Amino acid sequence: MNITTTARDFEMTGAIDSFAREQLDVMLRPFSDFIASIDVFMKDANGPKGGIDKEVLINVRLRNRQHIALQSTHENLYAAIKNGAKRIKRAVRRNLRRSRRPGRFSLRDIQNASRLASTPET
């Protein structure tokens, strides 16, 4: 899995970077065959004022060209990362379950079926 981390409005330390990568790797490892990339954007909305202002945006790009994004906010950046990792795990699992349901067709399946129906039989 390709995990990219970016910080805005604060200096990202190696500890924060490794914590985010570790949390996402542990949570999303069962789905690694289906994930193309993961982007993590962290920011401190209020700066030095404090409060519930640490935001983490996690964007997961799946191999089937779908995107899943969610935002987690907390007063502690580590808690926001951990909460976001748990939530993105549930969202990815839910998305993959829905895409594997029997009777559900992708756009490619529909296009192939219409091509087969329109070709003349010899």
Question: Any overview of this molecule?
Answer:
The protein is elongated and about 70 Å long. It contains three helices and four strands. The model has no long low-confidence stretch (mean pLDDT 85). The protein is of the alpha+beta class. Helix 1 (14-28) packs parallel to helix 2 (77-99).
Question: What's the short version?
Answer:
The chain contains three helices and four strands, in the order E-H-E-E-E-H-H.
Task: Break the fold down into its secondary structure elements and pairings.
Blueprint: E1 2-8, H1 14-28, E2 35-44, E3 54-62, E4 67-74, H2 77-99, H3 107-118
Parallel strand pairs: 1-2
Antiparallel strand pairs: 2-3, 3-4
What's the alpha carbon Rg, rounded to whole Å?
Answer: 19 Å
Quick one: biggest sheet? 4 strands, mixed
Query: Would you list the SSEs in sequence order as H and E?
Result: EHEEEHH
Number of separate helices: 3
- What is the CA–CA distance across the termini? 47 Å
Helicity, as a percent range: 40-55%
Number of strands: 4
User: Biggest sheet: strands side by side, in what order?
Assistant: 1-2-3-4
Q: Which percent band covers the strand fraction?
A: 25-35%
Structural class determined from secondary elements? alpha+beta
Net shape: elongated
Residue stretches low in confidence (pLDDT < 50, at least 5 long) are none
* Whole-number mean pLDDT: 85
